Amino acid sequence: MTQPAQWLERLCRISAAQAAPDRACAWPQHLGPDDWCMSPELLSAYGTELYEALDERQRRRLSFFEAVNFFSLNIWGERQLIAGIAPRLYARECDAISRYLQHFLAEENRHMALFAEFCGRYAGKVYRQKSWRAPRAHAGGEEEFLFFARVLLFEEIVDRYNVAMAGDSRLPPIVRHINRTHHRDESRHLAFGRRRVVELFERYAPGWSPEALTRVREELEAFLAASWREYYNPEAYADAGVSDAYGFRQRLLADDARQRHQAAFSADSIAYLRKHGILAAEGAR
């Protein structure tokens, strides 16, 4: 068995061992705006004057609706992932990874069910998806690479949040459980995703024109920026009682503290892509 095959086999064994339903999940009868449902340091207003102007109850209320937004983002992100993985399951170019992709799909479906249960049970809704991409022509292998690279960038941000909230004793046990469960599986998805993205880049990028490579890099940077913008949801702000929710969002997006937060949480992902030549070195174009 080759080394890549051994590595994939190990991921499959771990996924199979953890496939049984998790019965540690106990849904409380009530959860709401007076609970911390997202770590304060992860709130989209944290570190700004706008956050300082909120009282304790307003911050807790904001944390509840931002948790709903975070889980909603995961639902839509994983729905897109599932839609992209399903047709690749038995595609010839994915023969070597098809068995692991089956586990990947099953795990993402379980995650979606957890997120949707939280949102429906405690907020009565899932926030709408707002992002979209216009179809276009691609160079050879470009579409395949971009699919897995976008998945990786999205999941790496999410996992940083999962890890922080899984260990935050201020949050209700159910919130910690959901984040812990998601991180447990995502740690394998991220290990797979990093290898897959580099493998696809090394296979296809040598055949791309300089213009195509520039386009790929610009699309990844734009996707990362768009992913972060979805963490600033005016609907969540309005539900939390913030007046002028759209103005609140615009002020946060322009705040230096928020830019530093995003840069810190994206630093490892960007460094990894630069290390492998996928993104240009800092300052280079």
Q: Which helices and strands occur, and which strands form pairs?
A:
Elements: H1 3-17, H2 49-52, H3 56-85, H4 98-123, H5 142-166, H6 173-204, H7 210-229, H8 234-239, H9 245-253, H10 256-275
Structure report:
The structure is a single chain. The protein has 285 residues and is mostly helical. The protein has one domain (54-275): Ribonucleotide Reductase, subunit A, CATH 1.10.620.20. The protein has ten helices and no strands. It has helices at residues 3-17, 49-52, 56-85, 98-123, 142-166, 173-204, 210-229, 234-239, 245-253, 256-275. Helix 3 (56-85) packs antiparallel against helix 5 (142-166), helix 5 (142-166) packs antiparallel against helix 6 and helix 5 runs parallel beside helix 7 (210-229). The longest helix is centred in the middle third of the chain and has 32 residues, at 173-204. The relative contact order is 0.14. The mean pLDDT is 87.
CATH homologous superfamily?
Ribonucleotide Reductase, subunit A
Look at the structure and give the CATH class. Mainly Alpha
Shape: globular
Decide which structural class fits the backbone: mainly alpha
Helix content: 55-70%
Which ranges are low-confidence, i.e. pLDDT below 50, for 5 or more consecutive residues?
A: none
Q: Order of helices and strands, N to C?
A: HHHHHHHHHH
Number of strands: 0
According to CATH, what is the topology? Ribonucleotide Reductase, subunit A
At CATH level 2, the architecture is Orthogonal Bundle
